[in-house]
């Protein structure tokens, strides 16, 4: 039998069968297409309804709704724009706009090398007002003093005259900031809040008080040292005990835990840390070491954040791993952003080029 026999024409009966089958298939295809269209329409409706429902119920939400409060943290910065201070400032402006920040926190060592000479010191303009010029940074700057600020006229930075020079400036030795998480559009979590407690750590450090200390500090306006330290610890203890905030954050200049050049501050570990532990503080944020760090020990609830990289940096990081509590360290210039929500507190670490180097979520 030749191969051509396989290509005979179909009989009329066979053709009728084929046509009938084809019609059935077409009908089946039409039916399938119909149900696909119906299913897609249903899916779109369900998604649409779901979206409406979740907007009303708080399911699918925008970043601004999830994090109604946003701020930046910078430390150790005032060097007339040099040592990449200006570079960091411009990236703070970009990120500040992106996050629509509410304020900026400065964790001290605001003016190098020896603070301000007085309320008229031009360094205030050349290291602050003319550096952080981005529109997004025209918000309150909540500022504390670092050891270098105490090496100049410490009272000058606390003087209301500085706020007259630049309305953003708010600097005190100790203060607190309480914010609800309603958000600017009242779409956030109004029943949730964050309390930030700012403390003055420089007087705690023993070496600054040694008779043979090579640097001089402006202790004017402070009570005798032991009295000053005791009153600070008692005040912090009292404020933390009465705080009903969702998030409790303490901000100081000196490190508690750090793998940077200065390392741990034993005075704060002895005198302040037990107060933080007793009141379930979520995070301690500091500067002093000129790097970025995220430290969390497995046996403590407290997250330690170093953001002391506003200008001069590259001073080395000691070798450490997660086992030592070190989750991230960057030995270079940069800053940190904090986005606060009802159940999540997001911290992002940026370098001087605005790259996000590390992210961590504190959760409730
Ligand atoms: Zn310092």
Brief overview:
By secondary structure, the protein is of the alpha/beta class.
Provide an overview of this structure:
- With 364 residues, the chain is of the alpha/beta class.
- It has two domains: 1-60; 64-363, Metallo-dependent phosphatases (Purple Acid Phosphatase, chain A, domain 2, 4-Layer Sandwich).
- 32% of the residues lie in helices and 22% in strands.
- It contains ten helices and 14 strands.
- It has helices at residues 12-57, 63-66, 85-99, 123-129, 147-150, 154-158, 160-165, 225-242, 266-271, 273-278; strands at 69-74, 103-106, 141-143, 169-171, 175-181, 189-198, 247-251, 283-286, 292-296, 303-307, 326-330, 334-340, 344-351, 356-363.
- It has a seven-stranded mixed β-sheet. Strands 5-6-7-8-10-9-11 form a seven-stranded mixed β-sheet, with helices on one face.
- The longest helix is centred in the first third of the chain and has 46 residues, at 12-57.
- The chain is globular.
- The chain starts with 11 loop residues before the first helix and ends with a strand.
- Bound molecules: zinc ion (ZN).
- Residues 109, 146-148, 253, 288 line the site of zinc ion.
List the helices and strands and how they pair.
Blueprint: H1 12-57, H2 63-66, E1 69-74, H3 85-99, E2 103-106, H4 123-129, E3 141-143, H5 147-150, H6 154-158, H7 160-165, E4 169-171, E5 175-181, E6 189-198, H8 225-242, E7 247-251, H9 266-271, H10 273-278, E8 283-286, E9 292-296, E10 303-307, E11 326-330, E12 334-340, E13 344-351, E14 356-363
Parallel strand pairs: 1-2, 2-3, 3-4, 6-7, 7-8, 8-10
Antiparallel strand pairs: 1-12, 5-6, 9-10, 9-11, 12-13, 13-14
Residues 109, 146-148, 253, 288 line the site of zinc ion.
């Amino acid at each position: 039998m030749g191969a051509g026999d396989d290509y005979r024409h179909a009989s009329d009966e066979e053709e009728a069968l084929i046509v009938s089958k084809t019609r059935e298939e077409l009908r089946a295809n039409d039916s399938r297409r119909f149900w696909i269209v119906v299913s897609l329409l249903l899916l779109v409706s369900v998604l649409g309804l779901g979206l409406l429902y979740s907007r009303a119920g708080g399911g699918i939400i925008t970043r601004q709704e999830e994090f109604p409060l946003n701020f930046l943290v910078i430390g150790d910065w005032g060097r007339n724009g040099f040592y990449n201070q200006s570079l960091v400032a411009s990236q703070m402006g970009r990120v500040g706009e992106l996050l629509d920040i509410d304020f900026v926190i400065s964790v001290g060592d605001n003016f190098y090398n020896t603070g301000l000479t007085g309320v008229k010191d031009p360094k205030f303009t050349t290291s602050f007002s003319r550096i952080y010029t981005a529109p997004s940074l025209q918000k309150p700057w909540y500022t504390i003093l670092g050891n270098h600020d105490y090496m100049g006229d410490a009272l000058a930075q606390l003087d209301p005259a500085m706020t007259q020079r630049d309305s953003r400036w708010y600097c005190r030795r100790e203060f607190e900031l309480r914010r609800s998480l309603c958000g600017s559009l009242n779409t956030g979590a109004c029943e949730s809040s964050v309390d930030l407690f700012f403390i003055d750590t420089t007087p705690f450090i023993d070496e600054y008080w040694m008779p043979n200390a090579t640097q001089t500090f402006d202790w004017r306006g402070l009570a005798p040292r032991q009295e000053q330290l005791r009153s600070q610890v008692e005040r912090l203890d009292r404020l933390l005990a009465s705080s009903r905030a969702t998030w409790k954050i303490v901000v100081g200049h000196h490190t508690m835990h750090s793998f940077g050049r200065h390392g741990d501050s034993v005075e704060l570990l002895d005198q302040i840390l037990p107060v933080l532990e007793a009141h379930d503080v979520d995070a301690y944020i500091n500067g002093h070491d000129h790097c970025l760090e995220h430290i969390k020990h497995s046996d403590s609830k407290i997250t330690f954040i170093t953001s002391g990289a506003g200008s001069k940096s590259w001073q080395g990081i000691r070798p450490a791993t997660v086992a030592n509590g070190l989750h991230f360290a960057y030995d270079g210039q940069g800053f940190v952003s904090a986005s606060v929500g009802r159940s999540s507190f997001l911290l992002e670490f940026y370098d001087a080029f605005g790259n996000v180097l590390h992210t961590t979520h504190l959760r409730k």
